[in-house]
Specification:
Layout lengths: L1 H8 L3 H17 L3 H17 L3 H18 L6 H13 L3 H18 L2 H17 L3 H18 L5 H13 L14 H7 L4
Helix pairs in contact: 1-2, 2-3, 3-4, 3-5, 4-5, 5-6, 5-7, 6-7, 7-8, 7-9
Length: about 190
């Protein structure tokens, strides 16, 4: 799996996908469930980056089911978000929203701040798909402000979605914090504490 990770970090996504497939076969053979789940989640991520959203959804579902079966709450929010992105592409916005909110709640529960911001990017994509450009843009300004203030690096699917949203919504430089809601206010409005 180290080779697969290195290929992914080098931006060689197709090669990384193939390497994760090989690692998945080995992990499955020896019944290493944690590694199997992580490999499935990475395949979901890479399928997203490669624009194969049905594969991303498939691997995201398998990863989530496995993490739930073994009781690994820390790993569950990521495949939920990958599924949400895939459902957006399939225009199944109720499913996208349900998985996105579950991912947000999970990341908030485990204290994963970057995961929370990534979930909010996913939510902004859902808002845009629902035709709510104003709320999507407002949310993105908050995310943009948080990312800049904390020097956060996003995972590839989230970075891709963030860049697409900023382009579609014609966003410029960050606006002052007093002109958009803060992160606690947004999470509170979503019932996420």
């Amino acid at each position: 799996r180290v080779q697969a990770d290195n290929l992914r970090f080098d931006g060689k996504f197709s090669e990384a996908y193939n390497a994760f497939e090989r690692a998945l076969a080995l992990s499955s053979e020896i019944d290493d469930r944690i590694s199997t789940g992580i490999e499935l989640a990475n395949m979901s991520l890479l399928a997203n980056v490669l624009n194969d959203h049905s594969a991303s959804l498939y691997y995201g579902k398998k990863a989530l089911a496995l993490f739930r079966m073994i009781g690994n709450e820390y790993q569950q929010p990521f495949p939920q978000r990958m599924q949400a992105y895939a459902y957006i592409k399939e225009n199944d916005l109720p499913q996208a929203r349900a998985h996105c909110i579950d991912s947000l709640k999970g990341n908030q529960f485990i204290g994963h701040k970057t995961g929370v911001l990534a979930g909010l990017i996913c939510l902004a994509a859902i808002l845009l798909a629902e035709g709510n450009d104003t709320e999507a843009k407002r949310l993105l300004y908050t995310i943009q402000s948080e990312i800049a203030a904390k020097s956060i690096s996003l995972m590839e699917p989230d970075e891709k979605a963030f860049d697409e949203l900023k382009k579609i919504l014609k966003m410029g430089k960050p606006i002052p914090k007093n002109e958009h809601p803060g992160l606690p206010q947004i999470l509170n409005s979503l019932g996420i504490r």
